[in-house]
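Revision sheet: structure tokens.
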Amino acid sequence: MTTLLSDETMTSTLTDEGSKLTIILSDSLEIIESASSGGERTITVSTDQLLCDAMDEYNHTRFRRARILESVLREQQRVGKGTGGSMRWLPVAAATSMDFYKLVHTEGLLTFLLNAFQAWESLGPQGRDLKGSLPVEEVEHSTKAGGDDEPCPPLIPINMPLPRLPNSRQRPSKHVFGQMGYYCNDTCTPVFDHLVHELLEDAGVMQSVLDLALVERDTKSTIYAVPTHPGHHAAHDSFGGYCYVNHVAALAKQLQEKLSKMGTIGAKIAILDVDYHCGNGTASIFHDDSSVLLVSLHCDPDYDYPFHIGYADEVGEKGDSSRTLHLPLPPKTKWPAYRVALEHGLSRIVNDFDPQALIVSLGLDTYAEDPCALRLAGFELQGNDYVEMGRLIGERSASISTVIFVQEGGYRMDAVPEAAKNVVTSCHASRQLG
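Predicted:
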């Protein structure tokens, strides 16, 4: 077995001329080539990563990331050095801080995410009330002992505050229990021992996306970021829905800030969210920001998570339709109806908004029989529909210099890898023809 994608290899590919599809991933992932199976390339998923995935019935983010990357690797091998030469891989180191997210999240939230597990663990077995944790017998293998020979279970909230209103006197408690309830809005997004390391890895991935997008801002580039955790449900001062920090929101504001310093004042960024679930965190962050257009295709919130938000009449602060376009679709939506909504959304982005960059929240839980959809809900996209989705995005975005895909959800592990590959590669191919 030979480890691929050395730093030397990546440095040389970054000097190649021409538009590229760049896949950005953590350098902690080991990509190996097996001589015994015809040079097949696989992504190593460590025991710790698989055990962290075991904390949730559906959200196997580390396994999903590995299988998606393997699918893209197989596509690169299939097309050979011809078309495949336009694809490059960029493994990057973890960040040393969460500063990348400071433009969209409060200091209190980011500080909590960095320190919460340590505070929870430090209480010891006598001080850790297990009402605020996942059952130990289910996750013992994914936690570490805190010097007391007992595993420290993942922390979940036992209460949530009232909605954050202007001039509210609510604030996070000094106790980690109270802080968890203040910042986290569900019980399926726990704080656990490996979380900080993974968030710093994701910050490194997103910082590299920003750096590359700025370097290649005048080319027809396509970038695919594959962080560990999705992000579009994370809001300014709260997290949930498997999301801890909002990658696409932070990237949009970072792009605007950096482009402004480079002379592009008032840069407009569009976000296209194709996840089955409404990106309620992204919508809330940009509700009153007319410089960022969010177009979101998702299941009607009368039928599925996150409920309460994502209705068609939510167009932004003071009815400014340049800010938000929600396109809720009914359960059992198939590709023909989905395509009509997607074309409408892309028309708003390209013809009415004319952004400097397009960021795509690439959720793939639109696939038929995705297990995370509520019963009697779910969409019914499948197979070649994702080739068509990518092609349509690529054709309509040909005039936009930079398109960036950021991986979000998707829980059919037998289908998501190929769907992700199909969207990203067909989009990039169409952009080169446009």
